[in-house]
Automatic annotation (TrEMBL):
Binding site for NADPH: 57
Protein name from the UniProt record: Pyrroline-5-carboxylate reductase
Protein task: Catalyzes the reduction of 1-pyrroline-5-carboxylate (PCA) to L-proline.
Gene Ontology molecular function: pyrroline-5-carboxylate reductase activity
Organism: Neptunomonas antarctica
Family: Belongs to the pyrroline-5-carboxylate reductase family.
Binding site for NADP(+): 10-15, 70-73
Matches recorded under InterPro entries: 6-PGluconate_DH-like_C_sf, NAD(P)-bd_dom_sf, P5C_Rdtase_cat_N, P5CR-like_CS, P5CR_dimer, Pyrroline-COOH_reductase
One GO cellular component term noted in the UniProt record for this chain: cytoplasm
Known EC number: 1.5.1.2
SUPFAM superfamilies found in the cross-reference section: 6-phosphogluconate dehydrogenase C-terminal domain-like (SSF48179), NAD(P)-binding Rossmann-fold domains (SSF51735)
Length: 275
């Protein structure tokens, strides 16, 4: 990034910390990052990293070029109403990472005419392996679009959607997706242990296999389905595991889980939004 805009994180929980960690380890100057949250002692580690920390959201936002909204969706309305007066004066770029809450609700709560990028990130941002689905409202300038993309690409992949509704699907795939893989890892570790491996060995084998499979799929010019078939020798061992997954309807389980995830994102917009 040629210049480092001043960033203010409103909310400094799991997602904000993953993005901050990714940015700082990518060389983003800590003194250009501010963070606010109500429990000041939870911010000690961020302060130790060199960030300016405060309990006062308006103070964090003051003179920030980009304000990253990283509180729970339930807190959005109250927090944005508090920021509206400053937003009208300073006109920063807002980046919201909240699931469900629409850009029109955010704009309304901020008093209107605000440049808003909605981002659906994920926690692997912490290790610069994040995935960000981005949407910009009509007030976002081309320069601000580039700015948002530069900031978030320091944490991983960035892809834009032109239809905001698609962020529900992005949430179901990549926003919540790390949890599905963690669950699968938990299950593989437990099953490996049941077959006699130590917990440590089952964990190492599982995690390296997940890393290897993901890296291979990314680097390969063939689909995951082809790679799967290459592991599955005819009448071999893998075939039995795949047949067992299919008999237990893995594809249906995944589809239903992702539909439930997207439906919750739609419901959050209705329950908590003002559209
Ligand atoms: N976790 C994830 O994997 C992902 C999360 N998101 C989105 O990120 C957002 C945050 O989620 P997550 O980080 O998991 O949640 P957390 O509960 O971990 O973090 C919420 C943060 O908000 C702070 N907070 C609470 N009230 C206020 C307030 N009034 N003003 C300022 N800060 C406040 C909390 O501080 P304190 O601890 O002091 O109460 C905490 O730092 C959500 O909108 C979620 O949809 C999006 C993609 C992935
Ligand atoms: O579970 C949640 O609501 C958030 C949004 C996507 C991932 N975590």
């Amino acid at each position: 990034m040629s210049q480092h805009p001043t960033l203010a994180f409103i909310g400094a929980g799991n997602m904000a910390r993953a993005i901050i960690g990714g940015l700082v380890s990518n060389g983003y100057p800590a003194e250009k990052i501010r963070a606010s949250a109500p429990t000041i002692n939870k911010l000690d580690d961020l302060k130790a990293l060199g960030l300016f920390t405060t309990q006062d959201n308006v103070e964090a936002m003051h003179s920030a070029d980009v304000v990253i909204l990283a509180v729970k969706p339930q807190m959005f309305k109250a927090v944005l109403l508090q920021l509206a007066a400053t937003a009208a004066q300073t006109k920063p770029l807002f980046i919201s990472v909240a699931a469900g809450i629409t850009s029109s609700s955010i704009n309304q709560w901020l008093g209107g005419n605000q440049a808003i990028v909605r981002c659906m990130p994920n926690t692997p941002a912490l290790v610069k392996m994040g995935t960000n689905g981005l949407y910009a409202n009509n007030s976002v300038t081309p320069e601000q679009r580039t700015q948002a993309e530069e900031i978030l690409s320091a944490t991983g992949l960035t892809l834009w959607v032109e239809d905001e509704e698609l962020l529900h699907a992005v949430t179901a795939v990549s926003g919540s997706g790390p949890a599905y893989y963690f669950l699968f890892m938990e299950a593989m570790i437990a099953a490996g242990e049941k077959q006699g491996l130590s917990r440590d060995m089952a964990t190492q084998l599982t995690l390296q296999t997940a890393r290897g499979a993901a890296e291979m799929a990314i680097q390969s010019d063939v689909t995951p389905a082809v790679l799967r078939r290459r592991v599955s020798s005819p009448n071999g061992t893998t075939e039995q595991a795949i047949l067992s997954f299919q008999a237990n309807k893995l594809e249906t389980l995944v589809e239903e889980a992702m539909q439930a995830c997207a439906a919750r994102s739609v419901a959050i917009a209705k329950e908590l939004g003002d559209d």
